[in-house]
Amino acid sequence: MSEVLAVFVKELKVILREKRLLAILIMQPIILITVFGYAFSGEIKNVPAAVIDDDGSFASKQIISAIISTEVLDIKYFAATASEAVDMIKRGDIQVAIYIPEGFYREIKNGRGEIRVFVDESNFNVAITSINLIERIASSFSRELKGGIAVEQRYIFTTKTRMIDFIAPAIIGVVIQMLGLILSASSIAREREEGTLELILATPLRSADLIAGKFLAITCIIVLDIFNVMLIAHYLFNVEVRGSILLLFAVQLLFLTGSIGLGLAISAVSATQLQGIQASMLMAIVSIFLSGFFYPLESMPEAARLIAYFIPLTYANLAFRNVMVKGNGLDVVFPYVAVLVFYTLLTTLLAIRLLRRKIGTGGVS
Amino acid sequence: MFLLVNKLSMAAKLVVENLTVRYGEFLAVDGLTFQVEEGEILGMLGPNGAGKTTTIKAILGLLPFEGRIEIAGGVAGSLEVRRKIGYMPQSFSLYQNLTVEENLRFFAAIYGVSKGEVEKRIKELLEIVKLLNRKDELVKNLSGGMKQRLMLICSMIHDPEILILDEPTAGVDPPLRRTFWEHFRELNEEGKTILVTTHYMDEAENCDRLIVMRDGTKIAEGNADEIKKQALGGELIIIDSTKNQEALQILRDVGFDSKIIEDKIAVIVDNSARRLPEVVDILKKRDVSIAYAETRKLTLEDAFLRFVGEDDAMQSNSG
């Protein structure tokens, strides 16, 4: 165990003192999430909305014009019934519907005025902003009219999301894969290039301890990167994790393990650090474009989709999105997790096999 | 019984028997056999490509090989055996981005040096190679000689029974080379067994025994004097006269193994001091006027050149 610790500490120091590598490790995740964040989130404005005014009174009209004047909601439709508006939300035509029932004005004076707000649940930020807006307007009206208005919230489930909500989980996937691959692919190759590998292999250090120490060090660094991306996504761009954070973290670790395994395998067959890193970058770039990073799988051309099914990042993205955006649990994401478990086992075994053959006991026994 | 055990432990520290290493079709080492006794310094000589480094890698268990290698009472490459060996490779190979002390600590940890021992050991070794005041320096900022010294003590951090040093003094300036060898001798006196390769013949004279390798095989073995004798098949008398060609023929006719080397006659004899008067006498009787005649002490370098050929030797010195 102290051997694993020694390798772990050594590996961390070596990586953290390599300035160029460190710059990539710190900057790449920050740049990715910030650029995509600013490009695809934007302020919440002109959210398409519909109104159903069954009351048609002076008060209801005033409330509607107050809502229009804020520019947060863009009232595109006056619907006839609430269920029609809900269908529009489900179809994605609008994200918010405001229903003012008959007798609204009458009931205000009794303190029982009621507004029903239907919001598209998948777009959390829009939903919260819209509800807050309507509550604010409602309460200023009830003060003015010396009555009471209650705002009732109804969440409508759809599959539609903000672009950044859709992309943030994929950015985490990309960071895990690209940095995990780069770090692990360069790790063994660096030792070979500097001659330290041969020296280490002449010591009693077991190759399993060597791999374990390296694995832990790389995991440590990438987990910091993951936290970094998640914190920026959350605090700067209001990206929420609706499902279990623990499940999300577990799947991230799983995918990270697989990526490190693949990186070590690449490292075992590439002669130099540079070769290892180049091979990893190629893998990462192909993965990004074909894994449904920008578009959902369903909207990709068939040929591309066929390739996507063979890219592990595809399944990581699906799992992360399901947990983060839709709040789904293991019961829904288990097929993706199963694929990732298979991927991780495969790459880890491959790495151990290749490294053993390459460096192990040199085929002495 | 006790005596027998004792005797066994005093036996060879390293036995290499019929070692063969192939790189694909190429035979890097071809049926090499030798032993290193406990407490001995064995030097391996040979030009580049003779198979010295390959032999060392096989001994360390870093390469697949045919034949038998027994080291420190175990199998080459096994974990117990690796604990007892200190290895200093030919090219520089430590962590450039770690400090001197961090490198030592890392190797101490993976060699399983106990916590209590580490501090003392690191201080001791740093003092020996005069690097104590550099212990917090990153290795990449050290000079070549300092790096070489650090490599040496890294290989000794776990107080190994056997030191395997692959050209430890390559690229090291002469004063430091002498310090290194003084240190090797000290270690040797403490009972350490040392296997060392070198290109420097003056260093080779320091070894208890030598093996000379060429093309993956052993072509000579013994102490420095024995190697010299083996190189020529005897000792040397050098004669210069007015009629060297004629004199050569005369000596050959009476059965002396003679040849012209650098315009002089070289006579190979079993004992140069005893044969010198006899040779001079024969030539005088045949009216050859001798400019000078002397016994020549053969250097190890001469012997080495004889064994590996001038071309190879030149190559090996430049490489």
Summarize the structure in words.
The complex is a heterodimer of chains A (365) and B (319). Chain A has 365 residues and is an alpha/beta fold. Chain A folds into two domains: 47-155, abc type-2 transporter like fold, CATH 3.40.1710.10; 162-360, no CATH class. Chain A has 14 helices and five strands. Chain A has helices at residues 2-16, 19-40, 58-70, 82-91, 104-109, 124-144, 163-194, 196-201, 207-237, 245-269, 273-290, 302-308, 312-324, 330-358; strands at 47-53, 73-78, 96-100, 113-120, 149-156. A five-stranded mixed beta sheet of chain A has the order 2-1-3-4-5, with helices on both faces. In chain A, helix 3 links the parallel strand 1 and strand 2. Chain A is elongated. By secondary structure, chain B is an alpha/beta fold. Chain B has three domains: 1-84 and 162-222, P-loop containing nucleotide triphosphate hydrolases (Rossmann fold, 3-Layer(aba) Sandwich), CATH 3.40.50; 90-160, no CATH class; 234-301, 2-Layer Sandwich (Alpha-Beta Plaits). Chain B has 13 helices and 14 strands. In chain B, the strands form three sheets. A six-stranded mixed beta sheet of chain B has the order 6-7-8-3-9-10, with helices on both faces. In chain B, strands 2-1-4-5 form a four-stranded antiparallel beta sheet, with helices on one face. A four-stranded antiparallel beta sheet of chain B has the order 12-13-11-14. In chain B, strand 9 and strand 10 form a beta hairpin. The termini of chain B are far apart.
